[in-house]
Amino acid sequence: MSAFVTRDGSRWMPQYLTAIDGATCIGCGRCFKVCSREVMHLCGVDDAGEVLGACDGEDDDFDGELNRMIMVVDNAGRCIGCGACARVCPKNCQTHVAADELAALT
């Protein structure tokens, strides 16, 4: 696959979000706020590092099991590869793969 072409004819290769490192993510939500495609969501994590489930914005403490929150990629197919999430992440905990590399993996 060659690079995509923008409206002005510039070549561009999308970098799709494929994963977020839960050990590094601080759950700040900046990436979620800039993503218009609902690619990731905030999830609760227990003391053992197990993901408890999506946080719905209420004061959900998962019956006292909640230790911290992280972002989890749960709709990777919705990513358009704009890179906005990577630009706002203070921990650089995201993995992005170029469209041509991702196509080769599938």
Structure overview:
The structure is a single chain. The longest helix is centred in the C-terminal third of the chain and has 7 residues, at 99-105. It contains three helices and seven strands, in the order βββαβββαβα. The chain has 106 residues and is an alpha+beta fold. It has a single domain (15-104), classed as Alpha-Beta Plaits (2-Layer Sandwich). It has helices at residues 30-34, 84-88, 99-105; strands at 4-5, 11-12, 15-20, 40-45, 51-54, 68-73, 94-98. It starts with a strand and ends with a helix. The protein has a three-stranded antiparallel beta sheet, with no helix packed on it. A two-stranded antiparallel sheet has the order 1-2. A two-stranded antiparallel ribbon has the order 3-7. Residues 16-45, 69-99 form the 4Fe-4S ferredoxin-type domain. One of its GO terms (molecular function) is iron-sulfur cluster binding.
Summarize the structure.
This protein is an alpha+beta fold.
Question: How much is the average pLDDT?
Answer: 90
Tally of individual helices:
3
Tally of DSSP β-strands: 7
| Overall SS class | alpha+beta
- Read across the widest sheet, the strand sequence of neighbours is 5-4-6
InterPro entries: 4Fe4S_Fe-S-bd (IPR017896), 4Fe4S_Fe_S_CS (IPR017900), FdIII_4_nif (IPR014283)
GO molecular function: iron-sulfur cluster binding; metal ion binding
Domain 4Fe-4S ferredoxin-type: 16-45, 69-99
Pfam family, one: Fer4_7
